[in-house]
Amino acid sequence: MAYKLSERHTKKRAFITGGGGGLGRALAVALAKDGWTVGITDIKDEGLNESKQQIEQAGGKAITYKFDVANRSEYQKCFDEYIAKTGGIDLLINNAGVGDGGLFGEYRLENWEWITGINQMAVVYGSHFAVPHMKKQQSGHIISIASAAGIANMPNMSMYNVTKAAVISLMETIYAEVWGFNVQASVVCPTFFRSNIMQYHKGNEDAAKIGQTIIQRAKYSPEDIADYILTQAGKNVFYILHPYQARLVFHLKRLLPNFFLNYKAKQFAKKDWVKKALSQKF
Q: pTM (2 decimals)?
């Protein structure tokens, strides 16, 4: 059965960052099954070529772009090329992202600039380039992949929390600004699902190992999350929260903000947070 997004946007033109693997690839392949033309970006040829093959096998058309999404000029060049080839854009998915961990004050400032460029500024760039086209068309949908981390702001991952909180804030603003142009916006705030998001980490090695261990033990695959995202976006859901832990964090923080803040501080101070984190199932 076709996604509602496919029924709504009959020209089926999507642009997905970080499409060389993981969630980006899963989203691209899912759209390809509905016959979309998908522009995908990544920094590695191998991942792009594998994704291209899978997109075409699924029935879609792939257009690949190799560049770093934190590079504004390269991003604009590739985005403009995509628009020239397709004549417009119906769906932008700001998916590219990296994970990292470490204590604030110990995490190097140059690494802050690195993660901010990919996780935050790339979302700004892509949305900035896409919004004028969508407004002119009077149609389109922007989906940005944030994280429940941008809501919970847990210790030992300030660099990741900040960038994802920024994405949530940006998308809330964009939602209001494009609504009158028949353009939709969604922000995705999942907890853990299986991915390689820590593969480029630059911070504390132990923190990265803990994060990757939790991620690899997660219940949900990128394909599970991709299907949920596209289904919910088709219903014009703005806050896409999955699985139930993400919904729990979202509501708990808003209903009991001081309790939530003090609880996580006390748990972190007990020094046994690592053992508890590794014992959780997501």
A: 0.93
